[in-house]
Amino acid sequence: TDFGFKQVKKDEKVSMVADVFHSVAAKYDIMNDLMSMGVHRLWKRYTIDCSGVKSGQRVLDLAGGTGDLAAKFSRIVGPKGQVVLADINHSMLKVGKDKLTNMGIIGNVDYVQANAECLPFDDNHFDLITIAFGLRNVTDKSAALASMYRVLKPGGRLLVLEFSKPSSQALSKVYDAYSFHVLPRMGQLVANDAESYRYLAESIRMHPDQDTLEGMMQEVGFEQTSYHNLTGGIVALHRGFKF
Ligand code: SAM
Fold it and tell me: Which residues are listed for S-adenosyl-L-methionine binding in this entry (predicted)?
């Protein structure tokens, strides 16, 4: 089944993605922990470990949502650095801003409502850009990658953390059963919203696999690209540099 998503037009996809994240924003963090059984925390920890980010640097956490990565980067870059948490969806941004503020994280984090496809930042501005579980939702992924390339400083790096293609057939079967049957039921039970979680499963299935995404990064100019599979390729961390 493809739930008809393949047929939707660009504008419809944009508003559908908006609806999904408005409706999940309040329950987003708890659903993340439940659905991934807490493992998203390890995937994010690995991303931080690969970031090479240093005190005083500028970081863009794109599609940053409720701010898990932004919170960690804020502590690393310190008062002389800057973190921009950017997201297209103001409900997600608000949950993120409230969460970080409650954690006492203030001063070096800015919150910007922006579309990844046309970033409202100067050229050559950031030392690091992360986009975690966000690229999958973007309609024009190449435009978004090109926009990230533009705002990255020479020497800067991009990290894309995203669902990808499991490396074994057996894992792929278990995972499909989980995402198409268990996830929507969990969404229904916990968030009273099966539809959004069905969209999630479908968007994961449609996302480019590891090699395709790496090729797309190279096409817009990223160099020394590589990826690392996590949890058997259920998730992959892609890396690329601008020189
Ligand atoms: N990065 C966070 C994390 O890992 O927990 C949030 C990930 S959440 C699954 C995806 C986020 O992407 C949502 O907050 C959504 O609003 C945002 N998003 C979707 N399309 C976007 C776009 N075109 N530009 C910027 N953000 C977008």
Answer: 66, 87, 115-116
Residues 122-162 have pLDDT tens digits of 999 999 999 999 999 999 999 999 999 999 999 999 999 99
Burial class (CB in 10 A: 0-12, 13-18, 19+), 4: exposed
| pTM score above 0.90 | yes
Q: Which amino acid is at 163?
A: F
Domains of the chain (ranges; CATH) run 5-22+39-165+208-241 (3.40.50.150)
E strand or H helix that includes residue 207 = none
Contact of 204 with 135, CB cutoff 8 Å:
no
Distance 231 CA to ligand 1 centre (A): 21
Q: What is the predicted pLDDT for the residue at 7?
A: 45
* Tokens found for residue 59: 């970081």
The protein residue with its alpha carbon nearest to ligand 1, atom 4, reads 132
Between the CA of 116 and the centroid of ligand 1 the distance, in Å, is: 9
Q: Which two tokens stand for residue 62?
A: 């794109």
